[in-house]
Design goal:
about 325 residues, three-stranded mixed beta sheet, binds thymidine-5'-diphosphate, binds nicotinamide-adenine-dinucleotide, seven-stranded parallel beta sheet, alpha/beta
Length: about 325
């Protein structure tokens, strides 16, 4: 099988590239990534000489490029996105461009290539925000996005479904909860907490820190997408979650304990605008139909993740100092 993976230099995309190349020794990957601030070739460093991995620096909004690449593959697995809620609050233009127009450009390419198989990687944030007693999100929960990020992802989900109904494009969609693990960009909560503590900086907690997220190790997300692209039913959506609801304060306290620090490192700061209170996922469908469930318990996964950041200090220090941009400019300046 030949896969076009978009956004494969980002956090989840790069984990998926490594996962697929390792698990399927005869699969080939074309990795299309624009290398925005979130894309990092260091995430793919040990693949430089792998003949089954071809990296292309390019934009998913470039119709000529994606039309050409779509003709070379059996499936598009689409991760590329602007992914950070706080950035979408400051400026949402890039979110609409990449998440909506970029997804549309890829769908058109898949249609023109002869109704190519298409898997769209989306988020649970499209469903909105839950109260503490509400039932978790599932595949039948109405869409209710509340940030520019989640609204742009919701728009992309609708387009994917529209191409299935209108053009018979063989699509699947996954809506996954918050991921954590290696290569997690240190603007997001878990890597920010770990790296700030390692740098001797305080941890900024928005508001009371009692917002709830359902955390899933990125390897479990990769296994879920693997199951969907191989066994998923065309036209279907699968909700993917870790059965691991935690408040942000729970997360921070767990990491403080692993790094033997006290709570004086926590600093409550102004709350995020429109801050979603709680996300939770009912993943019965993917469990019952495809036999998937998470394998990494949060308590183990978070310890391993802290250890990964300790062992890969230069990776995140390069990002925090901006050095990683120099690395890819040298590699891809032509
Ligand atoms: P990320 O921000 O770490 O990576 C995004 C990647 O997309 C980067 O490598 C970036 O360079 C690339 N990219 C951005 N714009 C592009 C463009 N126009 N053309 C080509 N490449 C472009 O994001 P992530 O956390 O790895 O998320 C990947 C996908 O998974 C996203 O679609 C996101 O919505 C979804 N998702 C993320 C989470 C999570 O917890 N991080 C949870 C559920 C779903
Ligand atoms: P984040 O990692 O940005 O993911 P998302 O907003 O997509 O869920 O944030 C996770 C939670 O942590 C969210 O409730 C916002 C909160 N948060 C903080 O309290 N402080 C921070 O510095 C960041 C980045 C997030």
């Amino acid at each position: 099988m030949r896969l076009l993976i978009t956004g494969g230099a980002g956090f989840i995309g790069s984990n998926f590239v490594h996962y697929i190349l390792k698990k399927y020794p005869d699969y080939e990957v074309i990795n299309l990534d624009a290398l925005t601030y979130a894309g990092n070739l260091e995430n793919l460093k040990n693949l430089e000489n792998n003949p089954r991995h071809r990296f292309i620096k390019g934009d998913i909004c470039d119709a000529d490029l994606v039309d050409k690449l779509a003709k070379e593959v059996d499936i598009i697995v689409h991760f590329a996105a602007e992914s950070h809620v706080d950035r979408s609050i400051l400026d949402s233009a890039a979110f609409v461009r990449t998440n909506v127009i970029g997804t549309h450009t890829l769908l058109e390419a898949a249609k023109k290539a002869g109704n190519l198989r298409f898997h769209h990687v989306s988020t649970d944030e499209v469903f909105g925000s839950l109260g503490s007693q509400d039932a978790p999100f599932s595949e039948v929960t109405p869409y209710d996005p509340r940030s520019p990020y989640s609204a742009s992802k919701a728009g992309s989900d609708h387009l994917v479904r529209a191409y299935f109904h209108t053009h018979n494009l063989p699509v699947t969609i996954s809506n996954c909860s918050n991921n954590y693990g290696p290569y997690h960009f240190p603007e997001k909560l878990i890597p920010l907490v770990i790296t700030n503590l390692m740098e001797g900086k305080k941890i900024p907690i928005y508001g009371d820190g009692l917002q709830v997220r359902d955390w899933l190790h990125v390897e479990d997300h990769c296994r879920a997408i693997d199951a969907i692209i191989h066994k998923g039913k065309i036209g279907e959506t699968y909700c993917v979650g870790g059965n691991s609801e935690k408040t942000n304060m729970d997360i921070v306290k767990t990491i403080l304990e692993i790094l033997c620090r006290d709570e004086s490192w926590i600093e409550h700061v102004e709350d995020r605008k429109g801050h979603d209170k709680r996300y939770a996922i009912n993943f019965d469908k993917i469990k019952n139909e495809l036999g998937w469930q998470s394998q990494v318990a949060f308590e183990d996964g978070i310890k391993k993740t802290v250890q990964w950041f300790i062992e890969n200090e230069s990776w995140w220090k390069n990002i925090k100092s901006g050095e990683y941009e120099k690395y890819y400019q040298e590699q891809y300046k032509k």
